[in-house]
Design goal:
The structure holds two protein chains of two kinds.
Chain A lengths: L2 H8 L4 E3 L5 E5 L2 E12 L2 E7 L2 E3 L3 E5 L6 H9 L6 E6 L2 E2 L5 H6 L2 E4 L11 H9 L5 H14 L15 H13 L5 E5 L7 H18 L2 E5 L3 H7 L2 E6 L2 E6 L1 H6 L1 H8 L4
Parallel strand pairs in A: 6-11, 6-12, 9-10, 10-11
Antiparallel strand pairs in A: 1-2, 3-4, 3-5, 3-7, 7-8, 12-13
Chain B lengths: L15 H9 L9 H20 L2 H22 L8 H18 L3 H27 L6 H19 L7 E2 L2 E2 L13 E4 L3 E4 L5 E5 L3 E5 L1 H21 L2 H11 L1 H5 L5 H27 L9 H14 L4 H18 L1 H18 L4 H20 L11
Antiparallel strand pairs in B: 1-2, 3-4, 5-6
Helix pairs in contact in B: 3-7, 3-10, 3-11, 3-12, 4-5, 4-10, 5-10, 11-12, 11-13, 12-13
The chains are: A alpha/beta, B mainly alpha.
Chain lengths: 266, 385
Amino acid sequence: MSESDTADDSLQPNVRQTPAGKATGERTDTLLQTEDLVKQFGGFTATDSVDFGVDEGELRCLIGPNGAGKSTLLNLIVGTLQPTSGRIYYDGQDLTGLEPNERVQRGISMKFQVPSVYGELSVRENARLPIQQFADGEERRRRVDAAIADAGLSGYEEVQASALSHGQQQQLEIGMAASLEPDLLLLDEPVAGLSVDERDEIAARIRRLNREEGIAFVVIEHDTDFVAEIADKVTVLHQGEVFREGSIEAIEADPEVRRIYLGGEQ
Amino acid sequence: MATGSTDGVAGTDRSLLGRVRGRLEGPNTVGNSRGFWAGFALAVVALVAYPLVGSGEQFSLFLVLALLGLSLSVVWGYSGVLSFGQVVFFGVGGYAFGVVSINFPDATGITGAVLAGVALGAVSAALLGYFMFYGGVRDVYVTIITLVATMVMNTFMAQTAGSEWTIGEAALGGFNGMPAIPLLELGVSGVVSYQFVFNSIELFLPAVGAVEVDPFYYLALALLLATYLGLRALVNSDYGRVMVAVREDQDRTRMFGYDVKRVKLLTFTLGGALAGLSGVLYAARNVYIDPQVFALWFATLPVIWVSVGGRKSLLGAVLATIGIEYFRLSIEGEMALVVLGALLLVFIVALPGGVVPWVSDRLAGSELEMSEIDDTDAPREVTDS
């Protein structure tokens, strides 16, 4: 795929993806859109004039070399970092300057790269924390049990979260983030350090959450097999800029992407 | 935000007692068994009976200071904010009580002075907390600012000796402090009131004979028990779960939609109110207060109490305050502070979680071993027993 082909691909109008991931041609509103998003750390520019959009129900993967600005972009979207310049729009509203918790209240949720479940609390206490905001009594109990079961942790309810394996902590944290019922879920390397089986379980779970519950995803991942398995569309970041956008097949075939990131022949 | 929804063992008991236990028990407190509550009831009976055989007047000071210990436990142990400034709110509460009660020395005025002391403790904590938490101050810098606030108050109050430092009839008194605080009398003047300080009650007990008891002791004991049980309910509620989450990981908690700054401010304000109440009772008991309540050595004491007892344990804060203060006042003088400093170092290195959680873990381990021997299918809580 040539550079111009990729550029055309990225300029496609927003097209609603069905739960099965197939384009229907139905136009929808963009869920998330950044405009000229710049983040500088001293003299280093981590993201440079990034225009990045995600449609409702889309499953987008974000790839690129280390230092490309992927995690910075997610942190800007969720508000744990504030941009040097530029704007972030979500569901038609300007989020720029809002606190992370205010963005979460508007429907964005995120799982950080390093599993950060509450180690001193039990699995049940962890699962209860996000759910207690909008459910009480029997409804809460049902949702907590469902979230634990969905994470594959039934029987571990009273186990201290720090005693779980790395993969179980990742599953628990994804479950906690998803239990907020977000419209957009940001995942930073959700399968890093996991076995093939665990990776497959998380891929299946992401697809199910996307297709059955309509949650849009932005997933940072280096594992291209995993990306190929889940992504509707892929964005390549390089040196803080959007380098390419398109289908995984188009991205993998792009010689420039292969040169800077994927390796192999140019 | 909904509160109180523990699903623990007691939470399945639908009787009134079971529902009360359900509110008071949970993973954020030690002591969630029938055995604990039986021991608690025995301890309460012993505390009620203590003035009949010992000095309730002396012990009442420990009960008052235990409220100060609890104020730090809830702020540091449950929300992760290490404050050296609890004595600021303690002192503000005590001075406010003195100023208002001296100006309005009848029962109604003194009762209002108690409320004013608690309220000003809370307001001063809210103001300091607002500028810290909404100003982006975190971690060790909060500790430094609260320590500086303590030193500023100590210096400021020590220079209030002149007549210009008089509020109505109340002279702040500078280094010499504020004497002649009225005797604590609660109620409404001319309707119903009761004097709690220097008003011994004489009782005649068949086996013991005539004894005098101090009503202030029982007031302090009742307030301490109510505060302890109230805080147990709080830390085991939904809000308590959020407090603990903030302590464990602020950034993660924000990502679940919680306003972490607000949670810390509310908890800090509650800590200020409790410290203010402790200061009010301290000034009322001594009918006197001076700037030593803002001194560095005094500011360090709550940190030592809570560290030794276990900062994540309300019970630890209470027991360690009483035990350490009993020890400190037994030794007297500078040597007591040297020993306490060494004690703090030892506990930070050897037992960073504190005594009460350590004992609780050992007891839980014993129970687990017994249950394994008995081959029962009793639920195994991973947290405090």
